[in-house]
Amino acid sequence: MCRLPVKILLIPFLILTIVSGCSATSSQTGSGASSKDKVTINFWYTWGGDEAKIISELINEYNKSQDKVFVKGLNQGDIQKQMTAIVGGNPPDLASHYDENKLASWADRGVMLPLDKYIKEDNYDINDFVPAARSAVQYKDKTYALPIVMNTWMLYYNKDMLKKAGFDGPPETIQQLMEYDKKLSKMKDGRIEQLGIWPSQNPYMWMNAFNGKIWDPEKKEVTPLDPGFKKTVETNKKMWDRYGTKALDRFASGSGQYASAQNPFLAGKYAMQFDGEWIAKFAERYAPNLNYGVAPMPYDENHPESKNAGFMNVGTLYIPKGADHPDEAWKFLNWITQKEQMAKFAASLGNLAPRQSLQNDAMLKKEVPKYEVFMKYVTNGKIKSVPSVPFLDEYLEKINKTHDDILRGKVSVEEGLTRLKKEAQPLANKTKQ
Fold this sequence. Notes:
Elements: H1 15-20, E1 28-29, E2 39-45, H2 51-65, E3 69-75, H3 79-87, E4 94-97, H4 103-108, H5 116-121, H6 131-136, E5 138-139, E6 142-143, E7 146-158, H7 159-164, H8 174-184, E8 186-188, E9 191-194, H9 203-206, E10 215-216, E11 221-222, H10 227-241, H11 245-253, E12 272-276, H12 278-286, E13 292-295, E14 310-318, H13 326-336, H14 339-349, H15 362-367, H16 371-378, E15 383-384, H17 392-407, H18 413-430
Parallel strand pairs: 2-3, 2-4, 14-15
Antiparallel strand pairs: 1-3, 4-14, 5-6, 7-12, 7-13, 7-14, 8-9, 10-11
Helix pairs in contact: 2-14, 17-18
């Protein structure tokens, strides 16, 4: 499973390392047909543990399928080691990234090889990818990686808990969501016993529901004071203040592990939860009797154009600049991102496949619970990824820190976002756009 965008520090469980299944340890794969008389390419991938098994299987399948290229796989979860190897003149021939967050930065530094020449020469069907997935791997009109899996976030809701509270379906708007939260949350003697929903959502993931943005590509400016983004933060702050930091921290400290039956949503501590498609797989495994549904992220009723808007990211594969065998690396990259191989990989991880032609794939519908619901949502044309700018990682870190400070009352919304603008704009000014 590809690594997810960094969750804000307030989320009461460590989603990132658990969900990604990634490991910084290294292990090699690449058995199959003998490498004698073949061109050997080194493939560094970020998936570890059980998730590395399907990569190993696909590598072996490719090695046996032809007599020109031998792929030697290495589990390498440390992204910085990839950069060090590239800068040091000893890069792998092919590598993966958890998501697209570093793509623009690395492309801008010239360490990723543009793939457009290969795409054109092989008539590779780049247009089969979901538009948002395609744009996520492009920078300055060039394609620097290919997506292998895709994630999106929707609203999970406990049907029984909603029904008991008098609701016959999930909230459609943010305003309804806040009313649901008020009625579904329970407190006793100042302590939270149950939450309608965790009152702090990742602002750059949730902002599309408010028609918000954090970057203006025309003006080349960061836009934390954009009305939609500001409204996102204000809404989080309003929901947070309903309970207070002390009560929320105490409640969060009692939450169980994310990938377990103690997950707050699976355990009935949350009536609703924004999360990715993999939670449906967790529910199947850890809470088989849970009566739940999945719905689009609610939208601000003041922005009806944002109905069905949402956020996505992709796991990527790229060819480093300076690779010894880029042509052979492309042959394997082309092969592993074709429909059959992509479907196998995404199904094994419980992720979505970024190819539109796999929207109704029988194996994916069987292996990934609610797959059709998620794919219908992600192909609606209103799903966006983070902006493709070279300073993205630093910018997102500053957004998360500012958001945390605002929620905890260290600064006001206006003060925090003004400070964020002042701190982040110099990052944009330093990079060539």
